[in-house]
Amino acid sequence: MSIQRSALIIAAAQGIGLATAKRMAASGYSLTLMDINGAKLEHEAELLREAGTRVETVVGDALDSDTLRGAVERTTGAFGRLDALACIAGGSGGIPMHQVDEIPPEQWMKVLLLNINSVYLACHHAVPVMRDQKYGRICCLSSTVAKGRLGPIGTMGARLPYATAKAGLIGFVKQLSKDVGIHGITANAVLPWLTIGEPGTTVRETFLKLPQDYKDKTLAMSPQGRPIEAEGVAAAIAFLLSEEAGYVSGVELPVDGGVLN
Ligand SMILES: NC(=O)c1ccc[n+]([C@@H]2O[C@H](COP(=O)([O-])OP(=O)(O)OC[C@H]3O[C@@H](n4cnc5c(N)ncnc54)[C@H](O)[C@@H]3O)[C@@H](O)[C@H]2O)c1
Prior knowledge:
This protein has a single domain, classed as Rossmann fold (3-Layer(aba) Sandwich). The radius of gyration is 18 Å and the shape is globular. The model has no long low-confidence stretch (mean pLDDT about 95). It has a seven-stranded parallel β-sheet with strand order 3-2-1-4-5-6-9, sandwiched between helices. Strands 7-8 form a two-stranded parallel sheet. By secondary structure, the protein is an alpha/beta fold. Helix 1 crosses helix 8 (about 230-240) and helix 3 (about 65-80) packs parallel to helix 4. It contains eight helices and nine strands. It binds nicotinamide-adenine-dinucleotide. Nicotinamide-adenine-dinucleotide binds near residues 14, 63, 88, 141 and 201. Nicotinamide-adenine-dinucleotide binds near residues 17, 36, 90 and 197.
């Protein structure tokens, strides 16, 4: 890197967010890590510091505008700039819900808010800093479910609002990339398929508890016959956040072993 760059990673305490933090640290970035799970976040941040990375932490909710403003200010205060933003907070909620008439309005809104508003709020506070720098990289987490998925809901909770929200994020980055490109800012989305993080992560534990025949049927959907590891998704995110990816913008990048193709 030509200059010391910094990244803000939202939802960094575990899973894809944590793998992204480790990957960006290995690429030499200074980091601000944010998550609602303060104990796990501080633990992981300390390990990264011991390995030589400069790490700030912000504990809070990705749906709270003041917390996100604070995370951006913490990054610029500590490192002088904010080069890369990974918006990773999201999910479908823990309760399996299939048909549209089974999904209560409050659960519908909860899933839409977590997946979409968290990204909007982070960008709302980060883009002015990136615009002033005339440089920025933004990546958010969509999903292959944005294209719809046949069959039972598997590791997901409320699939319909989840698919709706993740499809919305594709529109978000396509429009944002056009709005901010002139300022040297890119915006992209990655679309992972079933992704397994370290022990204790949500999707991993849910997947392991599925009946064997259902696990087999799920894996048979993938040309590679295996889930993705969080590090594989993190590698794609790190590329989209890199200096070298400056001409890659408005892209929806599947990280799915060929499931969508
Ligand atoms: N794992 C998969 O199979 C998969 C596939 C496609 C897309 N995704 C998307 O990738 C992202 C990460 O998924 P994961 O499986 O690594 O998740 P995970 O559940 O393992 O980790 C999520 C992290 O987000 C934090 N978090 C949750 N709500 C928050 C909030 N309101 N504010 C701040 N932090 C919050 C949690 O504390 C946790 O550290 C999500 O957006 C998810 O929808 C995951």
